[in-house]
Design a protein that fits this description.
Layout: E1 2-3, E2 6-8, E3 15-24, E4 32-42, E5 49-59, E6 65-66, E7 71-75, E8 79-87, E9 106-112, H1 117-120, E10 123-130, E11 138-139, E12 144-152, E13 157-165, E14 170-179, E15 184-191, E16 202-203, E17 211-212, E18 217-225, E19 240-241, E20 252-259, H2 262-282
Parallel strand pairs: 7-10
Antiparallel strand pairs: 1-8, 2-8, 3-6, 3-7, 3-9, 4-5, 4-8, 10-20, 11-19, 12-18, 13-16, 13-17, 13-20, 14-15, 14-18
Length: 283
């Protein structure tokens, strides 16, 4: 089941989000597969709401997100949240077969910076779904598969968090950076022994968060196991294809990106090099 209600943010001015968390209330966590939230902004001229962008995303077991200092993920004025809640009897925790889950509520908590914070924040941050997959996603019965996809930017960026998404056959995911200028590939994250009830957003510390120069390529790889060796696999006799049902599979990542300019990118590099030199001198 999918539930897609609208809820007003009751904001009258733009605000910067400091942290955000989505939580299914009480026993609702046993049936909430995911709960995505998009923002829409009221157009005063037409009286209609228009798409603004992603607010946040919840999948089974996720804790929340914290934005690094000095950036703004905007909660716009005169906006509303468009929910997309996927309900399935296989969330976090057991529930009796045929049992009805009452008070089935999903809540979102927003911690906001002071109203003048936007004036101090030099760069914007956003969270998006990066559908980093090419070709069909098909996992045969008693078989395995791997997906690979790519994304690049026309400006420098910093990666603030990485959250791969998959269902019951996903076993591992990795995030890499390919530098076309040198031909070098650098792995920056690897999630192994995947569980669909552990969709955590992996937050990078700001002083080591991966920096991508203009033209560098994000590479995401995901591995799927449809055999009896996968303890999360409910039925290795099934053909598994890409789709929205929990029995299907997905291959994408939620990535929080701070969008830099050339000066900001060089400034962060210089700060990190200075900190490195101080550390060496202290030794």
């Amino acid at each position: 089941m999918w539930h897609r209600p609208y809820v007003s943010t009751q904001t009258t001015v733009d605000r910067c989000i400091k942290a955000v968390q989505v939580k299914p209330r009480a026993n609702a966590k046993t049936v909430v597969h995911h709960a995505n939230s998009d923002l829409e902004v009221l157009n005063p001229e037409t009286g209609e709401y228009e798409d603004y962008g992603q607010l946040t995303e919840y999948a089974m077991g996720k804790w929340g997100e914290i934005m690094p200092e000095g950036v703004c993920r905007t909660l716009p004025a005169n906006s509303r949240v468009r929910w997309d809640i996927h309900l399935f009897p296989g969330g976090v925790g057991a529930t009796a077969p045929g049992a009805m889950i009452e008070d089935n509520v999903v809540e979102i908590g927003l911690w906001l910076h002071p109203e003048d914070y936007a004036e101090k924040a030099r760069f914007k941050q956003d969270l998006k779904l990066y559908g980093l997959r090419h070709g069909e996603l098909i996992v045969p019965p008693h078989g395995t598969a791997m997906t690979q996809g790519f994304h690049s930017f026309d400006h420098p960026v910093r990666i603030d968090s990485f959250q791969p998404h998959g269902h019951l056959r996903l076993r591992a995911a990795s995030l890499e950076i390919f530098y076309p200028a040198t031909g070098r590939t650098e792995q920056i994250s690897q999630i192994s022994n995947w569980s669909a009830t552990w969709h955590h957003s992996h937050l990078y510390e700001p002083d080591v968060a991966p920096l991508l120069p203009t033209g560098a390529v994000l590479v995401i790889k995901q591995w799927y196991d449809n055999t009896a060796n996968n303890p999360n696999n409910p039925d290795p006799d099934m053909w598994v294809v890409g789709g929205s049902r929990t029995a299907d599979e997905m291959s994408h990542a939620w990535i929080a990106i701070t969008h830099l300019d050339d000066a900001g990118y060089e400034e962060i590099l210089a700060q990190r090099e200075a900190a490195k030199q101080r550390s060496v001198a202290a030794e």
